[in-house]
Write a structure and sequence with these properties.
seven-stranded mixed beta sheet; six-stranded antiparallel beta sheet; about 550 residues; 14 helices; alpha/beta
């Protein structure tokens, strides 16, 4: 392949255009810097966003039966509910796993990444997560606290219009809310029952972004996607250049040991190019950012950039998840249609091991879901007047050094880049917590008068029964990666011997190279990670601006 060098130098190169890449681009352009955003995917076209649910599902079914190029992506339910074009081509973007250790790496296939299919549930993390090791002695604390992120959480909540209710729960810090959605009759019934039975459990309206889009009003993208929000705002400054079809292969250094730019491969022509900048920000998503660091090895950094401590690639985490489907005979369903979204849903915040170890397992879990929000066609229901719901117990997964990302140097992708090898399994402690989450969730359903069981109680056609049995099997305990909350691999810390980046996400070894996406996480918490990832990126962008202004990287 030919290699061509572009002489232009940007202030900042951001790799990735999703949730964190969009925030980095927005913040840095607002601060006055010229930013180049690189993304391996192509831009989506208008027709991909205006397609009907039936068209999308039919296209997904065709690809499942005929093309077979998205064998991993098709396992995720959002693949079937949205446009399959928004997901990666697994044949073109391979990875390897250990035998008998499956990992479902769900990836975006268009500029905007997984924000195109994001549910936008946006709780904050609390100091029970940031300082978990201080509470129970396992692992390491984050080098930051909720107070460090609070102004950045607030700025983003205002930007996106996060909905929620003030609850004054220490394990679920309140935010700056645009309002709150209302619970359905079934949810109010559930809340009353559970809170009367348990003095340590709260059923609250979920925190999230109202992500509805309106094609008839010309709203091509959902307003929770980065192209509709942060990337659009960055473009309005006149300082953003977006380059799609540009896969980042590695970060290269100058003779002072600082990041000098990124080598990219044009995904259409396979031409290799170098682009230069005064600072580089990796927001490619957790595993891809780690892959880039590993593939950027030099004689001075033989284990990859940030790899001198031996920590790079280690402590990969994802949430384990288990769904409980149920009917509620005590709640009559009028047939009214209720919105179901990240903010139009309910949440039971973590109530275990808060401040002291009271359970036979470490850390905790939360529960999210909805009642009377999942439309079930009447033709498929045995009892058309009974309310139906689901709750998902999502459990914290502990950081284990042998859950990791390496490079499989025996195999390259179509662009000549070594593919990631992902080694990740649920450990005994993780399984113990996941089992407790399922047991508690089913118990709460029963105590509220519910009857667990989706297939038996509601559906009777053979095709639907078979399909739903497969869904239930997949989500009784999710496969690692399936929840799409993967974090870790380049964790932050106060000591370069035990971490990859500092508290502002700068690599200890390369101070003008930043990794503020999910790769920098120390623990997984139980909460959805995206808002926190964006808050960390927003905070890092301020440090990046200071670094450039100090001329430390010139």
């Amino acid at each position: 392949m030919n290699q061509r060098i572009l002489e232009d130098r940007w202030d900042v190169i951001v790799v990735g255009s999703g949730a964190t890449g969009g925030v980095a681009a927005w913040k840095l352009t607002v601060l006055g810097f010229r930013v180049l955003v690189l993304d391996a995917a192509r831009m989506s076209d208008e027709s991909e966003h205006r397609a009907s649910f039936a068209w999308n599902t039919g296209r997904a079914l065709y690809r499942h039966l005929v093309s077979k190029r998205q064998g991993t992506q098709k396992h995720h339910p959002t693949y079937w509910a949205t446009n399959p074009d928004f997901f990666a081509d697994d044949v073109e973007n391979p990875y390897t796993t250990d035998p008998n250790q499956p990992f479902r790496w769900i990836r975006g296939g268009r500029v905007g990444g997984r924000t195109l299919t994001w549910d936008a549930v946006t709780p904050r993390l609390s100091d029970y997560e940031f300082k978990a090791a201080s509470f129970d002695g396992f692992g390491s604390d984050w080098p930051i606290s909720h107070d460090d992120l609070a102004p950045h959480y607030a700025e983003l909540e205002k930007l996106f219009g996060v909905f929620g209710s003030e609850e004054r729960l220490p394990q679920l810090p309140d935010g700056v809310f645009a309002g709150k959605k209302q619970m359905t009759p079934g949810e109010l019934h559930f809340k009353t029952k559970i809170e009367s039975l348990f003095d340590n459990r709260s059923v609250v309206i979920s925190r999230g972004i109202d992500g509805e889009r309106s094609p008839e009003k010309g709203q091509t993208y959902s307003k929770i996607s980065s192209p509709r929000t942060t990337l659009r705002l960055a473009a309005e400054t006149g300082l953003l250049t977006l380059r799609p079809n540009a896969r980042a292969a590695r970060v290269f250094l100058n003779d002072r040991g600082l990041a000098d730019g990124v080598e990219i491969v044009d995904t259409r022509t396979l031409e290799r190019t170098k682009v230069y900048a005064r600072a580089v920000v990796l927001c490619a998503s957790t595993i891809e950012s780690v892959r880039i660091l590993l593939n950027s090895r030099t004689p001075r950094h033989p284990q990859g950039l940030g790899g001198n401590s031996g920590i790079l690639g280690r402590y990969l985490m994802d949430h384990s998840a288990g769904n409980v489907y149920f009917s509620m005979p005590e709640v009559k369903d009028s047939g009214a249609m209720y919105e179901f979204s990240g903010c139009a849903s309910i949440m039971i915040p973590r109530y275990q091991n808060l401040g002291s170890q009271t359970e036979p397992y470490l850390r905790g879990f939360g529960v999210w879901g909805g009642i009377q929000r999942m439309p079930v066609p009447n033709l498929l229901r045995k009892n058309r007047s009974v309310a139906f719901g689901f709750l998902c117990g999502r459990s914290e997964v502990l950081p284990h050094a042998d859950n990791r990302v390496d490079l499989d140097t025996s195999r390259t992708d179509r662009f000549g880049i070594p593919v990631p090898k992902i080694s990740c399994t649920w450990k005994e402690a993780d399984l113990r917590l996941a089992a407790a989450a399922r047991e508690d969730t089913e118990d709460m359903v029963r105590r509220a008068g519910g009857v667990p069981g989706m297939v038996t109680d509601h559906f009777y056609t053979p095709f639907v029964t078979g399909l739903l049995r497969q869904i239930q099997k997949e989500w009784t305990l999710s496969t690692p990666g399936m929840f799409v909350h993967e974090v870790g691999g380049a964790r932050m810390g106060n000591d370069p011997a035990t971490s990859v980046v500092d508290s502002h996400c700068a690599l200890w070894d390369v101070p003008n190279l930043f990794a503020p996406d999910g790769s920098c996480w120390v623990t997984s918490g139980w909460q959805n990670p995206t808002l926190t990832q964006m808050a960390i990126t927003n905070r890092a962008a301020i440090r990046i601006a200071d670094v450039i202004r100090s001329r430390a990287t010139v």
